Predict the 3D structure of the following.
Amino acid sequence: MRCAQCGWENPPGARFCGRCGAALAPRTKGSGIGVLIGLVGLLTLGVGALLGALFFRAAPGFPPAPAPSGAFPSPQAGPTSSPTASPSPTPSPTPMNVFTDPWAYCAALASGIPDARYEGPSDPEPVARALIAKGVMAPGEPFTWRCKNGRVYACYFGATLPCWQLDTRREPHSELINYCRENPWTDFIPLAVTGHGTMYTWACRNGQPVITGELWEVDEEGYAPELWYEIPPPLPSSGIAPRLTLIEPHFGRSGSVAEGVSDDGQVVVGYSLNARGGDRDDRTMRAFRWTPAGGTQDLGTLGRERTWAHAVSGDGRVVVGGYYVGDYAWRPFRWTPERGMEDLGTLGVNWADALDVSADGSVIAGYAYVTTPGQAPGWAVFAIRWTEASGITPLGSLPGYRFSHAFGVSADGTILVGETNRGPAPEWNESEAWVWSRASGMRGLGRKAPWGSSAAREVSDDGTTVIGLLFNDADYQSWADFPYRAFRWRADTGLQDLGTLGGERTEVWHAVTRDGSMVFGRSQLSTGEWRAFRWTPERGMEDLNILYREAIPSGWTLRAVMDCSPDGRYLVGWAEGPGGLLRAFLLDTGSALR
């Protein structure tokens, strides 16, 4: 089938040109002579009908032709001249179901490309929005969609990517043959010659085209599955418009960051600091607690001016974090409205921090250093679990490891997660994520190739899901300069790489929903720019700046989500605005999942 746009000869049945991607018009069956004969016959029939009509209308003595009944008489109705005969009613043709929604259409069609039964937009906005949110394409770029097994799949054309059925012919066509005659020995024949729709790589050997490999895998319908993304249907709106609140810094600082949110989204904790764009002065951090009614409340300090808040209890009354005491040392605190900031103690060394808190505020996770006289390097660091009754309890480390940190705790305080390390800082060497419970102790979650290390950051409220990082061995200061990924772990799936928005890095903190069905964090685009994301098993990773663009002021970008409410409705983190302004944000998405 020859393409009318570029002249490329495509295989029989192709719907798109393998070279330029243009839609192919179906060829009329029959030879040119047959078509000519048919046209002559139609012309003759038309002239005869016209003459006959004129003759019957003009000739005297002939009754006028009966008005057409709209249907042929039934064979059982008897002679048509009988005055008592009446034609049988015409059976109504079965109506063709017509669809304007791609998902309803695909559910009915099962598999295939849109045909006359689909009367909606050729480029449905929800499909485009999903591709943009996944980081596959930019707004306004071309894409196509089709049905597969009752579901909607979409493909971005990009740099002439083959979103059509691939050319699987192994026999060389004329342009390949001609090219190899002129270039007898070449290791790669350009796609401009082979056609962008070919599934093979071709070379010339002694003037003959030969297949050297495969460019794409092909599914049962003839498409390249790696180019097609499943697009789940848009979820129904809750009727509540998404709303973004930017939290202004306090204590004379220029920027702010939010790290924790209460279950109802009415309390946000974090810190203010001097920051602009990517430049942050962590020496200026100052912890705050914010509410819509009361605004920003400074949490004070037990030491130097520098303090920070990491997490808040479900009811918003207990805040945990750390405060600086000087000489590169810090201690953990617990804050309540009644008692203010209270020191949680240490394991004998002024290096300890509180990183997460249970829903009722009674259990705190973190880390603390201890001295190890006579042992290199002279100190150790262990994950800790704090309660008011027991104080700080070190959790030890996995067999074969020396140190540990606890980063997250479940809602009921019975499960903690973190990482263990084989070597001392600054190298740390190999790390492994772990889960701890009083009944089972500390259990490693392993690693996932090609990454050499893992670290758990948070556990879902129900204890079934752990999120964290996959990375390669490096010291604690430079590991972030290399690619790394976020993971989601469940007993039935193991460590699952969450992917990226097109770049090399993805990071998570405490933002996972009650049942582990949604994960939030930050991920890089192919340009290296950081964007806040949402991930679900059904929809994969999506850019929150696309999903909630109508709620985000012009010039602002959501850079990261640090925490979320148990149902996923309320999200907190930081955003960047004009001139590199850094602001803590609270995003009310309006529903648990949009």
In short: The helical segments are 32-58, 102-109, 125-133, 174-182, 191-194, 544-547. DSSP finds six helices and 33 strands in the chain.
